[in-house]
Amino acid sequence: MSLLAKAQQPDSNGRIQHVTPESAGWGYVGFDAYLLKKGQTLKLSSGDKELCLVLVAGFASVKTRHAEFPNLGKRLSPFERIPPYSVYVPHNDEVEVYADSDLELAVCNAPSQGNLPARLIAPEDVGVEHRGKGRNQRLVHNILPDTQPADSLLVVEVYTDEGATSSYPSHKHDQKDSPDETYLEETYYHRFDPEPGFAMQRVYTDDRSLDECMAPYNRDVVTVPRGYHPVATLAGYDNYYLNVMAGPVRLWKFTWEKDHAWVNSDKYPRV
């Protein structure tokens, strides 16, 4: 099974990506991406899942059974590098999204049995941090981290400049009964500036029973069922990706690959 899901032409609802637990061969994470035209309406049912709707680019108004969030949006491109508007939707709810402009919408989902209400995640609610040093720097927007309420979902977006790496040093979170890791499945929704760009992403385990290298292009999705998963950008193209993670325990704990953990130390950048 390929770990790379290529972007498709929009269907009648504008959907260009559709990753389910069944298609990915795992148990928790689902991901959809939509390109809606101004004036288009998208209707969704959450069923037994909780949703996090992320306005990747454009403006929208969102309604659920018990809440309305009109006139959302702050950026026309993710590469404006300002936090997005997002909406958390609980299970057993109905959602209507009206595109107030051309809209790129990500719909993240994972199992839920809780009783949280629908809520707006405004840009000022998003934690912003800079990680790494040297050629391993990135800008991070923590949209739905494990410090904020949800049942399963963790959602974050990351910016990596041309020629730099991210999700690095190589790390993994695939152990269910470990004091050092939590089991979290993960998707990467990639965007590039300019759009013809691509990155290199490798997904691999210590024993190399999984070892796959991919070249995701604009709006492609990489699925990470287990193992390490670093990303390297190429000259001329900045990279954005939206990460969705979920598992049986809603906590982000990971371990570094020992061979490359030194990149976190004072030895790097080297003179």
UniProtKB/TrEMBL annotation:
Coiled coil: none annotated. SUPFAM superfamilies: RmlC-like cupins. The keyword Isomerase applies. It is an enzyme of class 5 (isomerase). GO terms for biological process: inositol catabolic process. Pfam families: KduI. The keyword Amino-acid biosynthesis does not apply. Signal peptide: none annotated. NCBIfam families: myo_inos_iolB. This is 5-deoxy-glucuronate isomerase. It comes from Pantoea phytobeneficialis.
